[in-house]
Specification:
single chain, alpha+beta, Alpha-Beta Plaits, five-stranded antiparallel sheet, 4 helices, 55% helix, 20% strand
């Protein structure tokens, strides 16, 4: 009888231990499954984040390439505008030079004044015309000044152009229809040293004028202002 009772106790103890093991195993399996589920969700989230990051990087590269292209286009446009400004500036300067050349623009600068006066002594009235300034004398001075680089010229303050005409009319000369009496002051804008040297070349204009009994005076000027050709003086 006692032996059977002991067997029941042992059997009960074994069942208890087995039950505890089953309970522990169930709880462990449940926790492990839960942990795996959490790990799987985390991996899925990481995967989704990684894919989003890759997509964003692709978009960034695309936008960067577009930015580089736009910057290149802007650079090309700036170069084109710079070239256009250069062309416009060049055209404006050329137009201004042409207006100055034809006498339509007021100009100022360094230059010289050449004064041509009739001879102070005339031996006889019969030879008086040999001692006064004629249009050819004025022409010689103007021509020499032009080929020496004069930018603008005026006679007694009247601007002349490439179309101007000068003729003698008795004791006076006419410049584009306007009469001027001696002395004739020819103003020229340009390099004073060059212009003076050109007039004083041996055997040149200065010697020819003196030979024709013309009194010549050349003065260097720091600034000469020449007005544009007025309509009344326009040929």
């Amino acid at each position: 009888m006692r032996k059977q009772k002991n067997n029941r106790v042992i059997l009960s103890f074994i069942c208890f231990i087995f039950g505890m093991m089953l309970a522990f195993s169930y709880q462990y399996t449940k926790k492990e499954a839960a942990r795996r589920n959490i790990t799987d969700r985390q991996w899925q989230k990481e995967y989704e984040y990684r894919q989003q990051l890759i997509q964003i990087q692709k978009e960034n590269r695309k936008l960067k390439n577009e930015l580089v292209q736009k910057q290149s286009e802007v650079t090309d446009m700036e170069k084109a505008l710079a070239n256009e400004r250069t062309v416009r500036t060049s055209l404006a300067k050329e137009a201004e030079n042409l207006r100055m050349y034809v006498g339509e623009a007021k100009v100022k600068g360094k230059g010289i004044e050449v004064t041509l006066s009739d001879a102070s002594y005339v031996p006889s009235e019969q030879s008086a015309t040999d001692y006064i300034v004629h249009e050819q004398h004025v022409f010689k001075v103007i021509h020499e000044l032009l080929i020496s680089g004069a930018e603008a010229i005026a006679i007694n303050g009247q601007r002349i152009s490439h179309r101007s005409y000068i003729v003698c009319n008795g004791p006076v000369i006419e410049v584009d229809g306007t009469q001027h009496a001696a002395p004739f002051i020819i103003s020229a804008i340009g390099n004073p040293d060059v212009l003076i040297s050109a007039l004083n070349i041996p055997g040149g204009v200065m010697d020819q004028l003196v030979q024709d009994n013309i009194t010549v005076k050349i003065t260097s000027k720091d600034e000469i202002v020449l007005d544009p050709i007025f309509p009344a003086h326009r040929p």
